[in-house]
Amino acid sequence: MVGLMQKMKMNMSRVLILTGAPGVGKTTLLTKIVDALKAKGVSVGGMVSHEVRKDNVRVGFEILDLTSGKHGWLAHVNGDGPQVGKYHVNLGDLDRIGTAAITQALEKCRVIAIDEIGPMELYSQKFKQAAAQALESKKLVLVVVHGKAKDPLVTQVKRRVDAEIFNVTFSNREKLLEQLISKALNTI
Q1: How many whole angstroms separate alpha carbon 50 and alpha carbon 87?
Q2: Is the preceding omega at residue 116 within 30 degrees of 0, hence cis?
Q3: Do the beta carbons of residue 139 and residue 112 sit within 8 Å?
Q4: In a domain, 1, yes or no
Q5: If you count Cβ atoms within 10 Å of the first and of the last residue's Cβ in the chain, which end, N or C, has fewer?
Q6: pLDDT cut 70: percent of the chain above it
Q7: How does strand 140-145 pair with strand 111-117?
Q8: Residue 4 counted as domain residue
């Protein structure tokens, strides 16, 4: 019976969660999935964040709207927002670009990508509301969840009956790419 329930859950997964250690390639994997879906004519919106380095030293994280191409700072070593480690979260850009990208994707796209639900993003109530709305929608959601983030939203995401969690590692990320593209195409 448990095997049948697990199989049913896997067949109805609408929220695909990527998690794993820092630097393992979760964002890269998500970006490759998004690119593959777009190449198949699927409308994908939402946001991703990438680290930014200067002179080989990470200085912050850029946020990118997948539909409009707008970008700004999620966090930077120089700033005055809430602090996570050595970075200061730019709540203005997070809401103006990241939250807006999720909201737009809810209205106009078949797939919503969210990178990531983590300590920096969780400082924004608007981001949390937009992410929760995406999760409650009927659309496919591809989401990166920070492994150590503690928040009711993270708990809710991981406990969803329509979610499936994929732990990304260096050794499985290429295999996961094909698996997740196939699962996404079969879901939409």
Answers
A1: 14
A2: yes
A3: yes
A4: no
A5: N
A6: 94
A7: parallel
A8: no
Please say if the pLDDT value at position 137 is more than 50: yes
In a domain, 136, yes or no: yes
Boundaries of domain holding 34: 13-187
CATH number, position 134: 3.40.50.300
C-alpha gyration radius of the chain: 16
User: Domain total for the chain?
Assistant: 1
Q: Which pLDDT band holds residue 2 (cuts at 50, 70, 90)?
A: very low
- Report whether 64 contacts 27 (CB < 8 A): no
pTM, 2 dp: 0.91
User: For residue range 5-33, what is the model confidence (pLDDT) as tens digits?
Assistant: 444 444 568 999 999 998 899 999 999 99
Instruction: Report the C-alpha gap between 96 and 73 in whole angstroms.
Output: 11
